[in-house]
């Protein structure tokens, strides 16, 4: 499985936080996680192969048609997802613009949602959003 990225925008004046919902209906860029996916809690060791977050950021900016620097990695957030024998990492990134890039998102079939609008997502994505929100709030 390819590494995933949850993208959000936090309004600097009001702290309103919105997550980017992608065309497939979820928030883990850029395709749905397998149905049996679950967050892998600490197994006592580091994974043998890890992804450099900059590669995931650049790929997301390219897919969304955003200029370089439009996304910034949220330090300290990294989750491992397990689906059977497959593993992947999930990162969290913040849009750096003053306002969410609504037009760009819409042009790619995406939209920005508040946390309360995520109720219909699969349980693993809801858990990832909960962890993301906790990290964002500090």
Strand order of the largest sheet: 3-4-5-1-2-6
Principal-axes geometry comes out as: globular
Structurally, the number of domains stands at: 1
- Class from secondary-structure proportions: alpha+beta
* Percentage of residues in helical conformation: 10-25%
CATH architecture verdict: Alpha-Beta Complex
Record the SSE blueprint.
Elements: E1 4-10, E2 17-21, E3 38-40, H1 53-64, E4 71-83, E5 86-95, H2 102-107, E6 111-113, H3 123-137
Parallel strand pairs: 1-5
Antiparallel strand pairs: 1-2, 2-6, 3-4, 4-5
Key features?
138 residues; alpha+beta; Nucleoside Triphosphate Pyrophosphohydrolase
Short account of what is shown:
The chain is of the alpha+beta class. It has helices spanning 53-64, 102-107, 123-137, and strands at 4-10, 17-21, 38-40, 71-83, 86-95, 111-113.
Textual characterization of the structure:
There is one protein chain. This protein has 138 residues and is of the alpha+beta class. The protein has one domain (4-137): Nucleoside Triphosphate Pyrophosphohydrolase (Alpha-Beta Complex). Helix content is 24%, strand content 30%. The chain is built from 3 helices and 6 strands; from the N terminus they run βββαββαβα. The chain has helices at residues 53-64, 102-107, 123-137; strands at 4-10, 17-21, 38-40, 71-83, 86-95, 111-113. It has a 6-stranded mixed beta sheet. A hairpin with a 2-residue loop joins strand 4 (71-83) and strand 5 (86-95). The radius of gyration is 14 Å and the shape is globular.
């Amino acid at each position: 499985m390819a590494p995933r990225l949850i993208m959000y925008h936090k309004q600097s004046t009001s702290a309103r936080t919105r997550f980017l919902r992608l065309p497939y209906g979820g928030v883990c860029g850029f395709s749905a996680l397998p149905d049996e996916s679950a967050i892998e809690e600490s197994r006592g060791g580091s994974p043998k192969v890890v992804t450099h977050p900059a590669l995931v950021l650049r790929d997301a900016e390219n897919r969304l048609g955003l200029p370089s620097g439009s996304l910034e990695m949220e330090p300290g957030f990294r989750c491992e997802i397990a689906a059977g024998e497959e593993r992947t990492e999930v990162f969290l990134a913040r849009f750096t613009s003053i306002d969410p890039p609504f037009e760009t998102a819409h042009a790619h079939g995406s939209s920005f949602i508040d946390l309360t609008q995520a109720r219909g997502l699969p349980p693993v994505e809801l858990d990832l959003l909960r962890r993301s929100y906790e990290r964002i709030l500090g």
